[in-house]
Amino acid sequence: MAGNVHEFTDANFDSDVLKSSDPVLVDFWAPWCGPCRMLMPTIEELANEFSGKVKIGKVNTDENQQTAASYGITSIPTVMLFKNGELVDKVVGAPPKQHFVNMLNSAVG
């Protein structure tokens, strides 16, 4: 993963996402998914812009089916925002970057 974008897996999701002291934005994606690839630069920009305030990462749903199934991921990309271990927001699809900026500002504000 590029720069500040973390890679979350079935093995580290609990410790890196649910137990994080910072809000965490999680992008559920797959390599074969066109809209997921289109969203990737936005996720990387957000990771740089919110560095130190929000942890941002991705879950490859092909390789981490347990985590994807536990959150009922049936369409990708699905982006979820966690705060204090709780799911606080969810977006299915690839909305404009500003949508995510608003989401993240509300989580850190």
Summarize the structure.
With 109 residues, the protein is an alpha/beta fold. The protein has four helices and five strands.
Structure description:
The protein has helices at residues 13-18, 34-49, 65-70, 97-108; strands spanning 5-8, 24-29, 55-60, 78-83, 86-92. It is an alpha/beta fold. β4 (78-83) and β5 form a beta hairpin. 35% of the residues are buried.
What attributes characterize this protein structure?
109 residues; alpha/beta; five-stranded mixed sheet; 4 helices; 27% strand; globular
Specify the overall morphology. Answer: globular
Helix-strand category: alpha/beta
User: Secondary-structure element order, as H and E?
Assistant: EHEHEHEEH
Uncertain residue segments: none
What proportion of the residues form beta strands (DSSP E)? 25-35%
Task: Report the sheet with the most strands, covering strand number, pairing sense and barrel closure.
Answer: 5 strands, mixed
Break the fold down into its secondary structure elements and pairings.
Layout lengths: L4 E4 L4 H6 L5 E6 L4 H16 L5 E6 L4 H6 L7 E6 L2 E7 L4 H12 L1
Parallel strand pairs: 1-3, 2-3
Antiparallel strand pairs: 2-4, 4-5
